[in-house]
Structure formats: C-alpha cells, structure tokens
Specification:
The protein contains eleven helices and eleven strands. The chain is α+β, with helices and mostly antiparallel strands and about 290 residues long. Strands 1, 2, 3, 4, 5, 6, 7, 8, 9, 10 and 11 form an eleven-stranded mixed beta sheet that branches. The radius of gyration is 19 Å and the shape is globular. The N terminus is likely disordered.
C-alpha cells in the first residue's frame, strides 16, 4: 500500500521560492497568500529546507492522501520529484487553514501557467476545478508544488473513462514531460479504458499523445466508432456541450475567447499547425480529445 501522508499548509516563504523566477508576480503572492504569523520561534529559526519540511509535516491538511514514486521519465534523479494524490477532498478540507493555503498555491500556479493577472473570474474558475474534482494530483520538487492536475472518473456502461479536468505546470518546469508522466500515473492508478480532456491548447494534446499514443481526433487516422461514442458521452454527460460536433470532436466558441494571456503553441510545428487549423483559440473553440489506453 502507498504510504499515507498528511498535507500541510504553506506560508509566504514557500510561495516566494516558487515564484523567484517570476519577480513581477510578487504582488500576486502578497495579495493571495493568507496572512500567517511567521514571527514565532518555531518558524523563524527554520532554514528554507527546514521550513519546507515543516510545511509538509507539521500543520496537517488531509488524511486521505497518498504518495507515489517519482514519475518515470521526468527530470533527473537529483531533481527529486514526488507525486501526491488527494482522493475525494471535501468542502470541509478546502475551508480549513491548510486547504485555503493550498488553494492559494494552486491559484498562483494557474495565473503563471495561463499567463494571466489575478481576477475574480479566474479565481472562481480555479476554485470550481479544484473543489469539484474527485482526484487532485500534486507534483512537488524539493518540497515545492510545481504541478497540479484534477481528474474525475466517468463510467459508460462497463467502460471506465478518466476525465482530465485541468492541469497546470509552473512555467520553468514546462517542457520536462511532467504532464505526460502525471497522466500515465493517473491512468495506472485508475485502470481506465479511455482518457478524455477538453482543451484549446496544442501542448496539452501533445502531452496526451505522448502519454497514451492512440489519441483522437487525429490528422492521419479516422476516428473509430467507439471513440466517437465516448466523445459524445463525455460531451453530453460531463461537459453538457450543446454545440459539440461528433465528427470533428470540436466545440465552437465554447469558451467565448482564448483562455490564455498568451496563446499556447507546441514546438512540434506540424502538430501545432494542424491543431490551430482546427481550433480557433481567439474565438474560444475547444477540442474534445479522447485517447484509448
């Protein structure tokens, strides 16, 4: 059985370390980090590493949390990545001190990942994702949260579908294969037959492709009937998409605009060209991506 862990609450020093590569976000940190008293002897005497250990060990957030080994294929051994899974976090968890601080960390990562300034709409959207999700995965490096992802389980008859509701990687950790490795970890844990995600980001499509292989829609292969059925099921029962096109697996203007401050692009030019020819990011289009596992 995986080792049981308790999540801990954070303070400004941890957030500051996460953001040190992005100094203009200091104001975001100061606004959104809960006002925690750092002047007590228990905290002020700690070194940075000691503080990180305090963060993860002493304050206590959730008991229904599991720790996994470092995801395969991510970084070097010296980077010491770890994966944590919070199963079925409750409303009570999120209104606790630890829950509020963890949310603030996830919200800051969301702002950095989407290249957006803080706003009530973005904060509420982040809250909706993390509070309504069934399975919250966190990836840490050196004790700092560098990636978070939300998954839900859907069942279509006897088939289990893992739905990726959202994933966010801190900017300086992007391009290291963390998203793909985390998807593989979640798939291995779930034993799902399909993975599904709605996105307007070609980088996310590429991450799913690397994690699963058999991904649709696909510019080179016709979409199989079973995948079309899964897409229709997810669009209707999970996303409630009224303008979803079964053949293209696209939903036009579903978001109303581009979700990102800077439209994301894959370094894989052929993939990026095909994806952006299908999805008009500026108009708020999205693709429902379905992978056979």
């Amino acid at each position: 059985m995986p080792e049981r862990f308790y999540f801990q609450s954070s303070v400004q020093i941890v957030l500051k370390s996460t953001l040190k590569q992005d100094q203009e976000k200091e104001d975001i940190m100061s606004v959104h980090c809960p006002k925690v008293n750092f002047e007590s002897d228990a905290v002020s005497k700690l070194t940075m590493q000691g503080f990180i250990q305090y963060f993860w060990r002493e304050l206590g957030f959730l008991s229904h949390t599991r720790k996994f080994p470092a995801p395969v294929g991510v970084g070097s051994q010296s980077e010491s990545y770890q994966v944590f899974l919070i199963e079925w976090p409750t409303k009570q968890d999120w209104i606790s001190v630890g829950g509020k601080v963890l949310f603030d960390m996830l919200y800051i990562l969301t702002q950095l990942g989407f290249v957006l300034e803080e706003s009530a709409a973005l904060e509420q959207d982040t809250r909706n994702h993390v509070e309504q999700g069934e399975y919250l995965y966190l990836v840490t490096q050196g004790g700092l949260i560098v990636t978070w992802a939300i998954f839900d389980y859907l069942r279509q008859d006897s088939d289990l579908i893992l739905y990726l509701s959202g994933v966010m990687v801190a900017p300086r950790y992007q391009g290291k294969g963390i998203s793909s490795a985390l998807i593989r970890t979640a798939l291995g844990e779930s034993k799902a037959k399909y993975l599904a995600a709605r996105t307007q980001n070609p980088v996310m499509y590429e991450s799913i492709l690397k994690a699963c292989g058999n991904v649709f829609p696909n510019p080179d292969v016709a979409t199989p009937a079973d995948v079309i059925e899964v897409g229709e099921f997810v669009a209707k029962n999970r996303l409630h998409m009224s303008n979803y096109d079964l053949k293209s697996m696209l939903s036009k203007s579903v978001y109303g605009a581009c979700l990102y401050g800077k439209p994301p692009a894959s370094v894989n030019e052929p993939l990026n060209s095909w994806f952006t020819s299908c999805v008009n990011q500026a108009d708020g289009d999205a693709m429902l991506v379905v992978a056979r596992v």
